[in-house]
Amino acid sequence: MSFQDKLQHSWQQNNSLLCVGLDPNPLLFPEHFHNIDNAIFEFNKAIIDATCDLVCAYKPQIAYFAAHAAEDQLAQTITYIQQYHPQIPIILDAKRGDIGSTAAKYAEEAFVRYNVDAVTINPYMGFDSVEPFIAYKDKGSILLCRTSNSSAADIQDLAIATEKGVEPLFKRVAKLASGKWNTHNNCLLVLGATEPQQMAEIREIVGDMVFLVPGIGAQGGDLEAMLKAGLRGDGKGLIVSSSRSVLYASQGADFAEAARAAALNLRDQINRYRQLR
Amino acid sequence: MSFQDKLQHSWQQNNSLLCVGLDPNPLLFPEHFHNIDNAIFEFNKAIIDATCDLVCAYKPQIAYFAAHAAEDQLAQTITYIQQYHPQIPIILDAKRGDIGSTAAKYAEEAFVRYNVDAVTINPYMGFDSVEPFIAYKDKGSILLCRTSNSSAADIQDLAIATEKGVEPLFKRVAKLASGKWNTHNNCLLVLGATEPQQMAEIREIVGDMVFLVPGIGAQGGDLEAMLKAGLRGDGKGLIVSSSRSVLYASQGADFAEAARAAALNLRDQINRYRQLR
Predict the structure, then answer these.
(1) Which range marks the domain in which residue B150 is found?
(2) With an 8 Å Cβ cutoff, is B239 touching chain A?
(3) Which of A155, A163, A175 is the best substitution to test chain B (most B C-beta atoms within 10 A)?
(4) How far apart are CA B99 and CA B127, in angstroms?
(5) ipTM rounded to 2 decimals
(6) How far is the C-alpha of A34 from the C-alpha of A26, rounded, in Å?
């Protein structure tokens, strides 16, 4: 099944726009994980078991595995989701970007080695750095547009001179990713929850394109303002990602129940807003 | 020894500005590698043995290892260089970039797990995505500025409005990386060999900052024009990287000799120009 079909299905099936980001940090694991093998996989598995009926996607962040030489546990985590929850799409958060021949290797890493459904991509090097990813037509290519970190404005908000005046760089990226670059109609955008006004302007430009939205929870984005700005007419079009506020809702023995409660609460907050509008 | 000290030493010791990029592609290996274990490491080892007195640095490209689940062979390659050629700095070409907490994990991957001397970084997410790398004061943080691929202009050449008119985005990145962001004086820039005029303008702006220069050889940059544009007054300041034209100079049994000849030729071409000026 293509990424888009899987996403459509999981939005519906779990009545959820929530994506749980898997950023496993062993220093924050409950004590009983401290001396076991495969702690990263076992932690992820517990989180997945506790939230699998509440999410539209999982998003493992590869840096958390790479720092600990735990590529095997990333593969285990992905295989576990694919085996027990084959309907839930997996987004590899990797923010890759390189010249074409190297980008092809990164696309192979994401889509062949790990066989995930979508990957995040950095647009700074231009179209030929994106093309090897979008060539996998059934997969999702999620381009950084306006991110949620506090320094995002340093580069992304710079004013680009156009014929009609100026526009911020992130808008140019949104236009490219939804237009000329989107040759297989499988591009999405990363838009942080921290700047709802910017998200509204991008929704205006790109129509029904799907947004991956980090920055709620630990990063402090305003959920309601973001939903108002980003939801499509059909009440979908968003993958709202939360990592730390779900994974580490408790660091005690009840971490999985606490993660479930946090995910349920987020999903339902989002859904209350979707029903109200 | 710090990255800068190692680089200074290897420039001098090997009388070379040449960096060999380790982009191991098993499809291009000579036939006798086709059925051996650890072919990637063994190929790299042969290239290193053949070129170790001709280079100022090695630059493994992590995508080529990641695509083949060969992180162990990346570690082996790095350890081999560190053990037998401890004076040669190692640059991990990874082009990482993410929010601060994740960037810290990527910095851990590069500087702790693999213990390399420098890493390439994508600036699109702004200062807090760069800061965790430069916090390793003895290491080098090499920021993408103007790359050598044909789509580089899509984003990097966009005209940023300033008080005095416009300037291309890559110039703004150069100013940030050499100024406000360079809090520990350990930043370098990636500047492709394909646009010597742009390199000259950046050299003007950033003073003695070191440039990592891809794009000669397979990517077709003009070596002499690039050297004229980029060399510092002391005839140094550049790490001129070549991958494919050295690694695959021959795909026969003589690949190592051919790689040495190609590296020697490049080093000497560069040095002839340095002596002439």
Answers:
(1) 3-276
(2) no
(3) A155
(4) 9
(5) 0.97
(6) 8
